[in-house]
Amino acid sequence: MRDAFEVRTYDGAARIGELRVPRAGVTVETPALMPVVNPHVQTIEPARLESEFDAEILITNSYILHGSDDLREAALQQGLHDLLDFSGAIVTDSGSFQLAEYGEIDVTTTEILEFQREIGSDIGTPVDIPTPPDVEREQAERELATTQERLEIAEGVDVGEMLVNAPIQGSTYRDLRTQAAEHADGTSLDVFPIGAVVPLLNSYRYADIAEIVGAVKRGLGGDAPVHLFGAGHPMMFALAVAMGCDLFDSAAYALYARDERYLTVRGTEHLADLEYFPCECPVCSEHTPEQLREMDDARAERLLAEHNLHVSFGEMRRVKQAIRRGNLLELVEARARNHPTMLDGYRALLDGADRLEASDPTTKDAFFHVSTESARRPEVRRHHQRLERFDVSGDVLLASDRGALEETFDERWTVTPPFGPYPPALAETYPLNGEVPERLERQAYVAASEGIRRLVSGNPGASFTVALWDWPEDVLADLPESIDRADGF
C-alpha cells in the first residue's frame, strides 16, 4: 500500500508527513515517537500514553506474545488493541531483536506475519537479520541476502489491511545499505526501518548513523516513511529528523527510569546527582529529586518514566514546530553543541548538503547564522549554484556593506558571508535577508569566497573588483588572480 504516506512540509530532508494506517483507521502525523510497550511489564499503561501524552502510535513485540501461553491466547481472543487498551496505531516487532541477542528464534517470517495479522497488528514486521556494525563484509552480504529473501516472502503473505515493514540492513557498509534500500523500495511493502543501529547509538557514533541514513535515503523514493530503529533518546531527535527519518521507537523512557536515569535534550542525568529538576513537566514541577529518592522504587520509577516521556514528546513537538518554521537546522546546531559526537553527526549530515538542498523550500523564515556549520547549510549551497546563472558584464564592484568608494562601476554587488555576492535587488529576499553576526568565523568568509569564484567563472567577459573590509587576508589572497582590489583597500 505505497500510497499510505504523504509529505506535507519539507525543511531540508526533514518532513512533516501523514502515515495512513488503514487497519487502525487512523492517520499518524510524522515525525512520530512510538513508545515501546512490554506486554509483560507496562511501566506506563498504553491508555495513559494515549490520553496523557497524545501518543498516536506505539510498538510492542509480537514474538513475546507468540511465545507466551497466557498472552498469546489473550491477544488472539481479544485482539491487540483491546489487550493493550490503545486505539491508535500499533506496530509489532517480529523477534529480530531476540535473534540478535540470543542467536536464534523459533518462528518464521510467514508464521510471525500471520500471527501479527491474527492479533490485529496495524504494522507488522518480518524476521530480518540485524547485522551488527563493523562485521566482515562477507557476513554483511550474506545476512543482507537472507533479509531480502524474507522481504520477498513477506510480499506473498496474506496480511489483509496490515501494513508491513521492510527492514533495511547492511551493517556499516554504505553501499550495502543503499542496495538494501533500493531492493526494499522495489517491494510492495510499506514502512522502511533502518535496522541494527542501536550499537552505534549506544557508542555515540552519530556520524556513522548520518552516513548510513544518507546511504539508505539515496536508495528510497520520497514516498517512503523511514523508521530509525532504537533511536529513542530526545537529544538526537532533531538530528535524526534532519537526516530524513520519520518514526522513532523509544524503550529508553522506561529502561532509563528503571536505572534512575533522567532524560534531557542535552543528555542523561542520574537521579542521585540532581539537586534540582531542570524541567517544567508535571513530574518535575510537583516533586524534587530528593522526594523521588525517598520514594519506594516502583513509584519513583513510574514518575521518572513519566518525565522521560514528557521530555521526549516535548522535543518531538519542538522539532515539528521548527520544521514548520523552516529553521530545524538551527535547532540541530543548538543540540549539536551538547556533545562532541553530536557535532560530528551534524557535520556528517552537512557533507550531504546536496541531498538536503534537493527538497529544501526556497523560501522560509529568516536564516540565522549561529555557528561555523551555518556556512555549509543547503541555503548557502543553493545561492552559490544560482550565482552560476547570473549574466553580468562591464566593471563590477563586489563590496561589503561597510564603506563607500568614489570609483564608478557599471554594477555594485553586495558581498555578505557566508553567501557571497548578490545584486542589491535581492537584499530583502530569503536567505540573503538573514541574521548574520558581525564577528564571523573564518569559515563564513571562505564560503563567501566560493560564491565569488562561481560568479567570476560564470562571467569571463566581466571585470571584477573587490572592496571587502575586515576580510581575513589569507581568504582574500586565495581569490582568483583576475580580480582587482579597489584603490586604498
Automatic annotation (TrEMBL):
Record text on cofactor binding: Binds 1 zinc ion per subunit.
Top EC class for this record: transferase
Recorded metabolic or biological pathway in which this protein acts: tRNA modification; archaeosine-tRNA biosynthesis
Catalytic activity: guanosine(15) in tRNA + 7-cyano-7-carbaguanine = 7-cyano-7-carbaguanosine(15) in tRNA + guanine
Active site residues per record: 93
Entry protein name: tRNA-guanine(15) transglycosylase
GO BP terms in the entry: tRNA wobble guanine modification
Species this chain originates from: Halapricum desulfuricans
Keyword terms of this UniProt record: Glycosyltransferase, Metal-binding, Transferase, tRNA processing, Zinc
